UniProtKB/TrEMBL annotation:
Species of the source: Geomicrobium halophilum
Name of the featured protein: 6-phospho-5-dehydro-2-deoxy-D-gluconate aldolase
Pfam families according to UniProt: F_bP_aldolase
Co-factor binding details: Binds 2 Zn(2+) ions per subunit. One is catalytic and the other provides a structural contribution.
GO molecular function annotations of the record: 5-dehydro-2-deoxyphosphogluconate aldolase activity; zinc ion binding
Residues that hold dihydroxyacetone phosphate according to the record: 180, 208-210, 229-232
Length: 283
């Protein structure tokens, strides 16, 4: 695999930092992720959840927009377009056909045998086209894409089974993280991470990173998390700024004026996360 995602995660794992994945919820997000990544000299991953793909116009539109925007903005730092929580094998195939660099197949709700079987199909298809694959074991708690899941810690054996039998490039072991806001303090399974690391050497992916403290984040990185996913934190700062602007000037109707502070809020939140994960100047 001469692939960009493979290279950036490999470098991060070796140098003990993490590449942030920022989920996009509109063109403004994409522009902000690409520009800020370039400004910080950081590798970044643009995540599109399965549902957002359709809400934003489909795989082809997103893959082409990504490509054109990257060229127009003259981005030189490594950037990767990734399908986040692909719910079906076919969805992953569609993303790959459209030109995505990387896909996540999320079979975490299935029995492990079925998860392995389906993930393997995605890996075979993806690797033939130089596309990397992430897969999940256990269950990240909370709500994403309007889908609620109970938190379920990944089993060590199932993680090993999935990695050994599929050839995936990265593993998301659900070990206490939650999509969206945390109710109370996060309860991350550091012992489990450490143990898993002694059996599995591919990069780990941390989902539900919004709401996790700096200290905990550094620990997850030390146990081999090389990709860390952020969605909620961006959306909170975006909506806060937007809400302020609209209440501050109730007569305002120029969309670009209205969106200016929320764009700036996105930029600064992304920059702050790039520093936090250690991806700053790693491009
Ligand atoms: P948060 O929304 O908690 O940041 O989680 C993001 C995520 O895991 C995307 O897959
Ligand atoms: Zn996730
Ligand atoms: Na979270």
């Amino acid at each position: 695999l001469g692939d960009e995602m493979y290279n950036i995660l490999d470098d991060a794992l070796k140098k003990k930092y993490a590449v942030p994945q920022f989920n996009m919820n509109g063109l403004i997000w994409l522009e902000s992720i690409l520009k800020t990544g370039e400004k910080c000299g950081a590798p970044v991953i643009v995540g599109t959840t399965d549902k957002i793909v359709d809400q934003l116009g489909g795989f082809n539109l997103l893959a082409q927009t990504f490509k054109v925007m990257k060229e127009e903005l003259e981005i030189t730092a490594p950037v990767v377009l990734h399908l986040d929580h692909g719910q079906k094998i076919e969805r992953c195939f569609q993303a790959i056909d459209a030109g995505y660099d990387s896909v996540m197949y999320d079979g975490s709700k299935l029995p492990i045998e079925e998860n392995v079987e389906n993930t393997k199909k995605v890996v075979d298809y993806a690797h033939a086209q130089g596309v990397t694959v992430e897969a999940e074991v256990g269950s990240v708690g909370g709500t994403e894409d309007g889908v609620y899941s109970d938190l379920l810690y990944a089993s060590l054996n199932e993680c090993i089974q999935l990695v050994k039998n599929t050839g995936i490039n990265s593993l998301a072991p659900a070990l206490g993280s939650v999509h969206g806001k945390y109710k109370g303090e996060p309860n991350l399974g550091f012992k489990e991470m450490e143990e898993l690391r002694s059996f599995v050497d591919i990069p780990f992916v941390l989902h539900g990173a919004s709401g996790i403290s700096d200290t905990e984040l550094q620990k997850t990185i030390s146990y081999g998390h090389a990709k860390i996913n952020y969605n909620t934190e961006l959306n909170i700062s975006w909506s806060k700024a937007l809400r302020n602007k609209l209440t501050e000037d109730t007569e305002l109707y120029n969309p670009m004026e209205i969106l200016k502070p929320s764009k700036e809020a996105l930029n600064s939140t992304i920059e702050e996360i790039i520093q936090r994960t250690g991806a700053w100047k790693q491009a």
